Amino acid sequence: MSKRPIKSNPCVDTAPSTQRAVPSSVADDAIHAVLDTLATSVAVVDLRSRVKRLNAAFEDLLGVSRRLVVGAKLTSHFTEPELLAQAIDATREDAFTVTRFEASLQPDHQTHALPVHVIVSRTDEPDTVMVELLPLDKQLRQEREERLVDQALANKELIRGLAHEIKNPLGGIRGAAQLLQMELENKALHDYTQVIIHEADRLQSLVDRLLAPHRKPHVVGDVNIHEVCERVRAVLLAEYPKGLSVQRDYDLSIPEFRGDKEQLIQAVMNIAQNAALALGDLRARGKANITFKTRVARQITMGKVRYRLALELHVMDNGPGVPAVIKDRLFYPLVSGRDGGTGLGLTLAQTFVQQHQGWIECESEPGSTDFKILIPLS
Protein backbone atom coordinates (compact mmCIF):
# COMPACT_ATOMS: atom_id res chain seq x y z
CA MET A 1 0.00 0.00 0.00
CA SER A 2 1.36 3.45 -0.89
CA LYS A 3 0.11 6.95 -0.27
CA ARG A 4 -0.01 9.99 -2.48
CA PRO A 5 -1.92 13.25 -2.18
CA ILE A 6 -5.02 13.69 -4.26
CA LYS A 7 -6.02 17.13 -5.43
CA SER A 8 -8.88 18.51 -3.41
CA ASN A 9 -11.99 19.81 -5.09
CA PRO A 10 -11.94 23.51 -6.00
CA CYS A 11 -14.05 25.79 -3.87
CA VAL A 12 -17.63 25.85 -5.01
CA ASP A 13 -19.19 29.24 -5.74
CA THR A 14 -22.49 29.44 -3.87
CA ALA A 15 -23.75 32.40 -5.89
CA PRO A 16 -26.79 31.72 -8.06
CA SER A 17 -25.83 30.46 -11.48
CA THR A 18 -27.35 31.77 -14.68
CA GLN A 19 -26.40 28.59 -16.56
CA ARG A 20 -28.86 25.72 -17.01
CA ALA A 21 -27.95 22.56 -15.12
CA VAL A 22 -26.59 19.74 -17.28
CA PRO A 23 -28.85 16.65 -17.17
CA SER A 24 -27.22 13.77 -15.31
CA SER A 25 -27.66 11.46 -18.30
CA VAL A 26 -25.71 13.88 -20.48
CA ALA A 27 -23.00 14.18 -17.84
CA ASP A 28 -22.78 10.38 -17.56
CA ASP A 29 -22.45 10.08 -21.33
CA ALA A 30 -19.63 12.62 -21.28
CA ILE A 31 -17.84 10.76 -18.48
CA HIS A 32 -18.22 7.45 -20.33
CA ALA A 33 -16.83 9.04 -23.50
CA VAL A 34 -13.76 10.23 -21.59
CA LEU A 35 -13.24 6.87 -19.90
CA ASP A 36 -13.51 5.05 -23.22
CA THR A 37 -10.53 6.99 -24.56
CA LEU A 38 -8.30 5.42 -21.90
CA ALA A 39 -6.18 2.45 -22.91
CA THR A 40 -6.18 0.97 -19.40
CA SER A 41 -9.17 -0.79 -17.83
CA VAL A 42 -10.97 1.58 -15.45
CA ALA A 43 -14.18 1.18 -13.42
CA VAL A 44 -15.87 3.44 -10.89
CA VAL A 45 -17.51 1.54 -8.03
CA ASP A 46 -19.33 2.49 -4.85
CA LEU A 47 -18.16 1.53 -1.39
CA ARG A 48 -19.95 -1.80 -1.64
CA SER A 49 -18.03 -2.58 -4.85
CA ARG A 50 -21.11 -2.14 -7.07
CA VAL A 51 -20.08 -0.88 -10.51
CA LYS A 52 -21.37 2.58 -11.42
CA ARG A 53 -19.52 2.96 -14.71
CA LEU A 54 -16.66 1.35 -16.61
CA ASN A 55 -14.81 1.96 -19.86
CA ALA A 56 -14.57 -0.08 -23.04
CA ALA A 57 -11.15 -1.48 -22.12
CA PHE A 58 -12.56 -2.87 -18.85
CA GLU A 59 -15.53 -4.29 -20.75
CA ASP A 60 -13.21 -6.06 -23.21
CA LEU A 61 -11.08 -7.40 -20.36
CA LEU A 62 -14.08 -8.93 -18.59
CA GLY A 63 -15.61 -10.16 -21.83
CA VAL A 64 -19.05 -8.97 -20.70
CA SER A 65 -21.29 -6.15 -21.92
CA ARG A 66 -21.23 -3.16 -19.58
CA ARG A 67 -24.99 -3.24 -19.17
CA LEU A 68 -24.57 -6.61 -17.45
CA VAL A 69 -21.81 -5.32 -15.19
CA VAL A 70 -23.16 -1.93 -14.10
CA GLY A 71 -25.00 -2.37 -10.80
CA ALA A 72 -23.35 -5.73 -10.07
CA LYS A 73 -20.52 -6.28 -7.63
CA LEU A 74 -17.07 -6.09 -9.18
CA THR A 75 -15.71 -8.42 -6.48
CA SER A 76 -17.64 -11.30 -8.09
CA HIS A 77 -15.17 -11.24 -11.01
CA PHE A 78 -12.15 -11.84 -8.75
CA THR A 79 -10.97 -15.23 -7.54
CA GLU A 80 -10.26 -13.63 -4.13
CA PRO A 81 -13.00 -11.01 -3.75
CA GLU A 82 -11.96 -10.10 -0.20
CA LEU A 83 -8.77 -8.47 -1.51
CA LEU A 84 -10.72 -5.87 -3.49
CA ALA A 85 -13.21 -5.36 -0.64
CA GLN A 86 -10.34 -4.71 1.79
CA ALA A 87 -8.72 -2.27 -0.64
CA ILE A 88 -12.00 -0.34 -1.03
CA ASP A 89 -12.36 -0.15 2.77
CA ALA A 90 -8.79 1.09 3.18
CA THR A 91 -9.27 3.74 0.50
CA ARG A 92 -12.57 4.86 2.02
CA GLU A 93 -10.95 5.43 5.43
CA ASP A 94 -8.14 7.59 4.06
CA ALA A 95 -8.82 10.01 1.21
CA PHE A 96 -5.10 10.15 0.38
CA THR A 97 -4.62 6.41 0.08
CA VAL A 98 -3.97 4.61 -3.17
CA THR A 99 -4.04 0.85 -2.68
CA ARG A 100 -2.09 -1.41 -5.00
CA PHE A 101 -2.11 -5.19 -5.01
CA GLU A 102 -1.93 -8.16 -7.34
CA ALA A 103 -4.95 -10.37 -7.86
CA SER A 104 -6.52 -12.84 -10.26
CA LEU A 105 -9.42 -11.78 -12.47
CA GLN A 106 -11.81 -14.36 -13.87
CA PRO A 107 -13.05 -13.07 -17.26
CA ASP A 108 -16.21 -14.70 -18.56
CA HIS A 109 -14.56 -15.58 -21.89
CA GLN A 110 -11.59 -17.41 -20.37
CA THR A 111 -11.34 -20.68 -18.52
CA HIS A 112 -8.25 -19.62 -16.58
CA ALA A 113 -7.74 -16.66 -14.27
CA LEU A 114 -5.91 -13.59 -15.53
CA PRO A 115 -3.22 -12.11 -13.24
CA VAL A 116 -3.67 -8.35 -12.87
CA HIS A 117 -2.16 -5.44 -10.98
CA VAL A 118 -4.99 -3.54 -9.24
CA ILE A 119 -4.92 0.16 -8.31
CA VAL A 120 -7.72 1.51 -6.11
CA SER A 121 -7.99 5.28 -5.50
CA ARG A 122 -10.56 7.83 -4.39
CA THR A 123 -12.49 9.96 -6.89
CA ASP A 124 -14.03 13.42 -6.60
CA GLU A 125 -17.46 11.80 -6.67
CA PRO A 126 -18.74 11.09 -3.11
CA ASP A 127 -18.62 7.49 -1.84
CA THR A 128 -16.92 6.11 -4.92
CA VAL A 129 -13.50 4.75 -5.78
CA MET A 130 -11.77 4.09 -9.06
CA VAL A 131 -10.43 0.62 -9.82
CA GLU A 132 -7.75 0.33 -12.50
CA LEU A 133 -6.56 -3.02 -13.80
CA LEU A 134 -3.25 -3.69 -15.53
CA PRO A 135 -2.91 -7.25 -16.88
CA LEU A 136 0.49 -8.51 -15.79
CA ASP A 137 1.01 -10.56 -18.94
CA LYS A 138 0.26 -7.46 -21.03
CA GLN A 139 2.77 -5.40 -19.08
CA LEU A 140 5.41 -8.11 -19.46
CA ARG A 141 4.63 -8.41 -23.19
CA GLN A 142 5.07 -4.66 -23.69
CA GLU A 143 8.42 -4.77 -21.92
CA ARG A 144 9.45 -7.75 -24.06
CA GLU A 145 8.36 -5.97 -27.23
CA GLU A 146 10.42 -2.93 -26.32
CA ARG A 147 13.48 -5.10 -25.80
CA LEU A 148 12.88 -6.93 -29.07
CA VAL A 149 12.41 -3.68 -30.99
CA ASP A 150 15.73 -2.40 -29.66
CA GLN A 151 17.33 -5.75 -30.50
CA ALA A 152 15.85 -5.68 -34.01
CA LEU A 153 17.29 -2.23 -34.66
CA ALA A 154 20.69 -3.37 -33.40
CA ASN A 155 20.48 -6.51 -35.56
CA LYS A 156 19.58 -4.40 -38.59
CA GLU A 157 22.67 -2.22 -38.26
CA LEU A 158 24.86 -5.24 -37.52
CA ILE A 159 23.57 -7.13 -40.56
CA ARG A 160 24.05 -4.21 -42.92
CA GLY A 161 27.56 -3.56 -41.70
CA LEU A 162 28.56 -7.21 -41.69
CA ALA A 163 27.03 -7.87 -45.13
CA HIS A 164 28.98 -5.03 -46.71
CA GLU A 165 32.21 -6.18 -45.04
CA ILE A 166 31.68 -9.72 -46.38
CA LYS A 167 30.60 -8.67 -49.87
CA ASN A 168 33.76 -6.79 -50.82
CA PRO A 169 36.32 -9.59 -50.20
CA LEU A 170 33.96 -12.18 -51.69
CA GLY A 171 34.35 -10.62 -55.12
CA GLY A 172 38.12 -10.76 -54.79
CA ILE A 173 38.06 -14.41 -53.67
CA ARG A 174 35.86 -15.46 -56.57
CA GLY A 175 37.91 -13.53 -59.11
CA ALA A 176 41.18 -14.97 -57.81
CA ALA A 177 39.77 -18.51 -57.99
CA GLN A 178 38.73 -17.96 -61.61
CA LEU A 179 42.18 -16.65 -62.55
CA LEU A 180 43.85 -19.54 -60.74
CA GLN A 181 41.67 -22.03 -62.62
CA MET A 182 42.76 -20.50 -65.95
CA GLU A 183 46.42 -20.92 -65.01
CA LEU A 184 46.18 -24.51 -63.82
CA GLU A 185 47.28 -27.01 -66.43
CA ASN A 186 46.13 -29.98 -64.39
CA LYS A 187 42.39 -30.17 -65.08
CA ALA A 188 41.90 -32.40 -62.04
CA LEU A 189 42.68 -29.39 -59.84
CA HIS A 190 39.75 -27.46 -61.33
CA ASP A 191 37.43 -29.24 -58.90
CA TYR A 192 39.06 -27.33 -56.04
CA THR A 193 38.76 -23.94 -57.68
CA GLN A 194 35.13 -24.72 -58.53
CA VAL A 195 34.46 -25.38 -54.82
CA ILE A 196 35.85 -21.92 -54.01
CA ILE A 197 33.74 -20.28 -56.75
CA HIS A 198 30.53 -22.09 -55.75
CA GLU A 199 30.98 -21.31 -52.04
CA ALA A 200 31.68 -17.66 -52.85
CA ASP A 201 28.48 -17.57 -54.91
CA ARG A 202 26.54 -19.16 -52.04
CA LEU A 203 27.82 -16.56 -49.59
CA GLN A 204 27.03 -13.81 -52.09
CA SER A 205 23.45 -15.06 -52.31
CA LEU A 206 23.22 -15.08 -48.51
CA VAL A 207 24.50 -11.51 -48.32
CA ASP A 208 22.01 -10.39 -50.98
CA ARG A 209 19.16 -11.89 -48.96
CA LEU A 210 20.36 -10.12 -45.83
CA LEU A 211 20.40 -6.78 -47.64
CA ALA A 212 17.20 -7.34 -49.66
CA PRO A 213 14.77 -5.60 -47.24
CA HIS A 214 16.93 -2.46 -47.23
CA ARG A 215 17.46 -2.29 -51.00
CA LYS A 216 13.94 -2.57 -52.38
CA PRO A 217 11.72 0.50 -52.16
CA HIS A 218 8.62 0.33 -49.96
CA VAL A 219 5.79 0.26 -52.53
CA VAL A 220 2.63 1.39 -50.76
CA GLY A 221 -0.88 0.65 -52.00
CA ASP A 222 -4.23 -0.68 -50.82
CA VAL A 223 -3.83 -4.16 -49.32
CA ASN A 224 -6.54 -6.76 -48.76
CA ILE A 225 -5.06 -9.20 -46.25
CA HIS A 226 -7.23 -12.04 -47.53
CA GLU A 227 -5.79 -11.66 -51.02
CA VAL A 228 -2.36 -12.00 -49.41
CA CYS A 229 -3.44 -15.18 -47.59
CA GLU A 230 -5.03 -16.66 -50.70
CA ARG A 231 -1.86 -16.09 -52.73
CA VAL A 232 0.22 -17.90 -50.11
CA ARG A 233 -2.38 -20.66 -49.78
CA ALA A 234 -2.31 -21.30 -53.53
CA VAL A 235 1.47 -21.63 -53.51
CA LEU A 236 1.41 -24.03 -50.55
CA LEU A 237 -1.20 -26.30 -52.12
CA ALA A 238 0.68 -26.33 -55.41
CA GLU A 239 3.97 -27.19 -53.70
CA TYR A 240 2.48 -29.73 -51.28
CA PRO A 241 -0.52 -31.24 -53.12
CA LYS A 242 -0.73 -34.31 -50.88
CA GLY A 243 -1.02 -34.63 -47.11
CA LEU A 244 -1.41 -30.90 -46.33
CA SER A 245 -4.69 -29.15 -45.52
CA VAL A 246 -4.72 -25.33 -45.56
CA GLN A 247 -7.78 -24.00 -43.74
CA ARG A 248 -9.30 -20.49 -43.74
CA ASP A 249 -10.91 -18.68 -40.81
CA TYR A 250 -11.41 -15.14 -42.11
CA ASP A 251 -13.13 -12.08 -40.70
CA LEU A 252 -14.32 -10.55 -43.98
CA SER A 253 -15.18 -7.24 -42.30
CA ILE A 254 -11.49 -6.33 -42.02
CA PRO A 255 -10.92 -3.22 -44.17
CA GLU A 256 -8.16 -2.68 -46.69
CA PHE A 257 -5.15 -0.78 -45.40
CA ARG A 258 -2.12 0.95 -46.85
CA GLY A 259 0.94 -1.24 -47.21
CA ASP A 260 3.37 -3.08 -49.45
CA LYS A 261 1.46 -6.11 -50.72
CA GLU A 262 4.50 -7.97 -52.06
CA GLN A 263 6.39 -7.57 -48.79
CA LEU A 264 3.44 -8.89 -46.81
CA ILE A 265 3.04 -11.84 -49.18
CA GLN A 266 6.71 -12.66 -48.66
CA ALA A 267 6.39 -12.33 -44.88
CA VAL A 268 3.38 -14.67 -44.69
CA MET A 269 5.00 -17.00 -47.22
CA ASN A 270 8.16 -17.34 -45.11
CA ILE A 271 6.14 -18.25 -42.02
CA ALA A 272 3.88 -20.68 -43.89
CA GLN A 273 6.80 -22.35 -45.70
CA ASN A 274 8.54 -22.91 -42.37
CA ALA A 275 5.34 -24.47 -41.03
CA ALA A 276 4.97 -26.74 -44.06
CA LEU A 277 8.55 -27.95 -43.74
CA ALA A 278 8.08 -28.61 -40.01
CA LEU A 279 5.01 -30.71 -40.87
CA GLY A 280 7.00 -33.20 -42.95
CA ASP A 281 6.13 -36.28 -40.88
CA LEU A 282 2.47 -35.30 -40.61
CA ARG A 283 2.28 -34.62 -44.35
CA ALA A 284 3.51 -38.14 -44.99
CA ARG A 285 0.57 -39.43 -42.89
CA GLY A 286 -1.94 -37.02 -44.43
CA LYS A 287 -2.57 -35.22 -41.14
CA ALA A 288 -0.74 -31.92 -41.63
CA ASN A 289 -2.80 -28.75 -41.15
CA ILE A 290 -2.10 -25.02 -41.54
CA THR A 291 -4.77 -22.44 -40.73
CA PHE A 292 -4.95 -18.78 -41.73
CA LYS A 293 -7.09 -16.84 -39.26
CA THR A 294 -7.83 -13.10 -39.41
CA ARG A 295 -9.39 -10.93 -36.73
CA VAL A 296 -9.60 -7.28 -35.70
CA ALA A 297 -7.75 -6.45 -32.47
CA ARG A 298 -8.69 -3.38 -30.45
CA GLN A 299 -6.63 -1.05 -28.29
CA ILE A 300 -3.25 -2.57 -29.19
CA THR A 301 0.10 -1.12 -28.11
CA MET A 302 3.04 -1.65 -30.45
CA GLY A 303 6.34 0.12 -30.13
CA LYS A 304 4.98 2.34 -27.30
CA VAL A 305 2.21 3.59 -29.61
CA ARG A 306 -1.45 2.86 -28.90
CA TYR A 307 -3.65 1.91 -31.87
CA ARG A 308 -7.43 1.78 -31.78
CA LEU A 309 -7.67 -1.02 -34.35
CA ALA A 310 -5.15 -3.52 -35.67
CA LEU A 311 -5.12 -6.46 -38.04
CA GLU A 312 -4.46 -9.78 -36.30
CA LEU A 313 -3.36 -12.54 -38.68
CA HIS A 314 -2.61 -16.00 -37.28
CA VAL A 315 -0.66 -18.64 -39.17
CA MET A 316 -1.23 -21.81 -37.14
CA ASP A 317 -0.04 -25.37 -37.61
CA ASN A 318 -0.28 -28.69 -35.78
CA GLY A 319 3.41 -29.52 -36.06
CA PRO A 320 5.99 -30.47 -33.42
CA GLY A 321 6.49 -26.89 -32.26
CA VAL A 322 9.48 -24.57 -32.11
CA PRO A 323 12.54 -26.11 -30.40
CA ALA A 324 12.87 -24.70 -26.88
CA VAL A 325 16.56 -23.87 -27.38
CA ILE A 326 15.78 -21.27 -30.08
CA LYS A 327 12.34 -20.02 -28.95
CA ASP A 328 13.74 -16.80 -27.47
CA ARG A 329 15.97 -16.19 -30.51
CA LEU A 330 13.50 -17.21 -33.19
CA PHE A 331 13.62 -13.95 -35.17
CA TYR A 332 17.37 -13.44 -34.89
CA PRO A 333 19.31 -13.74 -38.15
CA LEU A 334 21.00 -17.07 -38.95
CA VAL A 335 19.06 -18.91 -36.21
CA SER A 336 17.33 -22.01 -37.55
CA GLY A 337 15.79 -25.11 -36.02
CA ARG A 338 16.01 -27.06 -39.29
CA ASP A 339 19.00 -28.78 -40.85
CA GLY A 340 20.01 -26.87 -43.96
CA GLY A 341 18.00 -23.78 -43.00
CA THR A 342 19.58 -20.35 -43.45
CA GLY A 343 17.79 -18.78 -40.48
CA LEU A 344 16.72 -15.79 -42.58
CA GLY A 345 13.05 -16.50 -43.35
CA LEU A 346 11.61 -15.33 -40.04
CA THR A 347 14.12 -12.50 -39.75
CA LEU A 348 13.01 -11.11 -43.11
CA ALA A 349 9.34 -11.65 -42.22
CA GLN A 350 9.77 -9.66 -39.02
CA THR A 351 11.59 -6.92 -40.93
CA PHE A 352 8.84 -6.63 -43.55
CA VAL A 353 6.10 -6.48 -40.91
CA GLN A 354 8.03 -3.92 -38.85
CA GLN A 355 8.17 -1.72 -41.94
CA HIS A 356 4.35 -1.63 -41.58
CA GLN A 357 4.71 -0.52 -37.92
CA GLY A 358 3.67 -4.05 -36.94
CA TRP A 359 5.08 -7.01 -35.10
CA ILE A 360 5.17 -10.82 -35.22
CA GLU A 361 4.75 -12.92 -32.09
CA CYS A 362 4.97 -16.68 -31.67
CA GLU A 363 3.39 -19.08 -29.21
CA SER A 364 4.41 -22.69 -29.62
CA GLU A 365 4.11 -26.05 -27.93
CA PRO A 366 4.15 -29.59 -29.31
CA GLY A 367 1.11 -30.00 -31.54
CA SER A 368 0.32 -26.30 -31.84
CA THR A 369 2.31 -23.35 -33.17
CA ASP A 370 0.76 -19.91 -33.69
CA PHE A 371 2.56 -17.06 -35.45
CA LYS A 372 0.54 -13.88 -34.90
CA ILE A 373 1.08 -10.86 -37.17
CA LEU A 374 -0.18 -7.52 -35.82
CA ILE A 375 -0.43 -4.51 -38.16
CA PRO A 376 -2.11 -1.21 -37.21
CA LEU A 377 -5.30 -0.28 -39.06
CA SER A 378 -6.05 2.99 -37.25
CATH topology of the largest domain: Heat Shock Protein 90
Provide the β-strand percentage band.
15-25%
N-to-C series of helices and strands? EHEEHHHEEEHHEHEEHHEEHEE
- Helix content, binned percent: 40-55%
Rg for CA atoms: 28 Å
Poorly predicted spans: 1-24
Second CATH tier, the architecture of the largest domain: 2-Layer Sandwich
- Estimate the global geometry from the Cα principal axes: elongated
Q: So how many helices?
A: 10
Mind explaining what this structure looks like?
With 378 residues, the chain is an alpha+beta fold. The protein folds into three domains: 25-136, Beta-Lactamase (2-Layer Sandwich); 140-215; 221-376, 2-Layer Sandwich (Heat Shock Protein 90), CATH 3.30.565.10. The chain has ten helices and 13 strands. Helix 7 (225-239) packs parallel to helix 8 (261-278) and helix 8 (261-278) runs antiparallel to helix 10. Residues 1-24 have low confidence and may be disordered.
Task: Describe how the helices and strands are arranged.
Blueprint: E1 2-3, H1 24-36, E2 41-46, E3 51-54, H2 56-62, H3 66-69, H4 81-93, E4 97-105, E5 114-122, E6 128-135, H5 136-183, H6 190-215, E7 221-223, H7 225-239, E8 244-249, E9 257-259, H8 261-278, H9 280-284, E10 288-302, E11 305-317, H10 345-354, E12 359-365, E13 368-376
Parallel strand pairs: 8-10
Antiparallel strand pairs: 1-4, 2-3, 2-6, 4-5, 5-6, 7-9, 10-11, 11-13, 12-13
Helix pairs in contact: 5-6, 7-8, 8-10
